Amino acid sequence: MLLPADDIMLLLKEDAAMKIIDAHMHYFNIEGFKTVAANAGYENTAACWQQICEENNIVFSVAMGNTEDVPSRYGGISPRLIDLNAPFDDIKYNQPDNIGYCLGVKSEQITLENAGKTALEFEYYAQKPQCVGIKIYPGYRPVYVYDKRHWPLFELARAYNLPVAVHTGDTASSDARLKYAHPLTVDEAAADFPDVKFVICHCGNPWFADATEVAAKNPNVYIDLSGLLEGIPGPDFYNKQKAYFDYLSMWLNYMGRWDKLMYGSDWPLVNITDYINILKQVVPQEHHEEFFYGNALNVYGRIKNLLHDC
Ligand SMILES: [Zn+2]
After folding, report:
1. Whole-angstrom Cα distance, residue 291 to residue 288?
2. Cα(205) to centroid of ligand 1, in Å?
3. What does the pLDDT read at residue 45?
4. Are 200 and 225 in contact (CB under 8 A)?
5. Is the pLDDT of residue 182 over 50?
6. Contact between residue 77 and residue 37 where contact means Cβ atoms under 8 Å apart
7. Can you give the pTM of this predicted structure?
């Protein structure tokens, strides 16, 4: 439904005081993010993120562990995010207490032989209060989510009640392999590990039908709507791309489970205020509180222990 401009203004005003949890962002300092952040109207710095949080009432964020710069064979944890001894600047030293993180996984470096040892290495970090989940990157890594080399990590996730966030859908680099990132693949892992929560990141963009069906069918599967856009979409973007958002809305309504859907930005990829306002038009207003806040508390259960203002 296309809302008249006055209704949109009213809707945005009513939500102004709403608290937000960003269930999917990136918080580390690589060269490439400078340009990406600039395209979204920002700087990729800790100070900039804190200002964005203040301006948009974002009370907590989940940083997805990135793995590119990790020297460890098993890897998976960004030293720029959590290892205070790593010699990097600015953003990593100032990890504030309003950010938790998912442990990133270098799937291609895990074999059936070292998978158990990898999980043991991850267990050290899984015990840290600010670790709220595990993130794997099918597509960027040529390994399916359900591959048995991930199973010891899923057992770790079960033991510590940590959700497993899974990259799905479109990738930022052309040397990735989309077949590994198809959201239908999450069904296999979810069925094998029914007592582990899985998050289909990016709603499998653009495979919304598959992503919503997997979440509708599996009680342990959730979806985040991060990373659907890049840069500064601008206030008219929703209207210009109405067919795309109608298609997304159709499948979200098909799923009919607004308790399974979380807000995430994929910062620094997108302008946060624009993105929030666009998603306010995608998700029905009566579900805004759970979409922007409550559902993340249920999925990333450790966030509750890290919030200071409630
Ligand atoms: Zn991301």
Report:
1. 5
2. 12
3. 82
4. no
5. yes
6. no
7. 0.90
Q: Are the C-beta atoms of 24 and 264 separated by less than 8 Å?
A: yes
* C-alpha of residue 172 to centroid of ligand 1, in Å: 10
pLDDT at 268: 92
Calculate how far, in angstroms, residue 24's C-alpha sits from the geometric centre of ligand 1. 6
- Given a cut of 50, whether residue 55 has pLDDT beyond it is yes
- Give the closest residue to 260 by CA, choosing from 302, 224, 208: 224
Alpha carbons within 13 A on the beta-carbon side of 301: 10
- As a whole number, mean pLDDT of residues 199-206 equals 98
Q: In what order do the strands lie in the sheet with 20-25?
A: 20-25, 58-64, 99-104, 131-136, 164-167, 198-201, 221-224, 261-262
Q: What digits encode the pLDDT tens for the residues 244-285?
A: 999 999 999 999 999 999 999 999 999 999 999 999 999 999
d(CA 167, ligand 1 centre) in Å: 7
CATH for 21-309 is 3.20.20.140
Residue type, 54: E
